[in-house]
Amino acid sequence: LIEPDQKADDIVARAKREGMRSRAAYKLMEIDDKARFLREGARVVDLGAAPGGWSQIAAQRVGATEQGRVIAIDILAMEPVPGVDFIALDFLDRTAPDKLKDMIGGPADVVLSDMAAKATGHARTDHLKIMALVEAAAEFAREVLAPGGTFLAKVLQGGTEAALLASLKRDYKTVKHVKPPASRTDSAELYLLATGFRGASAAASQPAR
N or C: which end of the chain has fewer CB within 10 A? Predict the structure, then answer.
């Protein structure tokens, strides 16, 4: 049995060896290996992208230097990733959603959010802060996704609020929590995967249950 810290260290070493920006790259890789939403030619928006691990995987899998497109945003600076258009801005800035929409220039196929709020050490406060980010990301996804699109966001265990889950289940065909093997076993992080977006007009016409 691999201890959690040893597993994390092994993944960090693998990331350095393979030129990945972060161990988070392997989390996205493992989720997509099963769900297969990062298709060749897809348009992807990566929220909370720095240092760029998810953008790297997305760019490789959608062919961002050719037909695909990856748009990324983070409050922190990020070294360029081939095929990725990056903007350094807080996603919660009121101008951010429109700037991202201008950058992508049409509907997106995938919205990714690995955004995390700075931890305070107070569990309830930290939970509320990350849920505010997830809700903002979900609202943005609702505005930009093409029908059939995918939304993937980091949440905390014990975590996803009933109202958010209800609205996602209204808007998407399938909604589930996933924990990829690259996540630390002792970590509270989970990922919320919503696939098969019904389309903004269809979603708006159905009241949340």
Answer: N
Within 8 A by CB and 6+ apart from 98, the residues are: none
Among 129, 151, 139, 49, which residue's Cα sits nearest to residue 94?
A: 139
Catalytic residue among 101, 129, 154, 173: 154
Distance CA 61, CA 29 (A): 9
Distance CA 51, CA 66 (A): 23
**Residue 45 pLDDT more than 70?**
yes
Q: Helix, strand or coil for residue 21?
A: coil
DSSP string, 64-101: TTTT-EEEEEESS-----TTEEEEES-TTSTTHHHHHH
179 catalytic residue (yes or no): no
| Buried b or exposed e, range 101-131, using 16+ CB within 10 angstroms | beebeebbbbbbbbbebeeeeeeeebbebbb
> pLDDT band at residue 182, thresholds of 50, 70 and 90?
confident
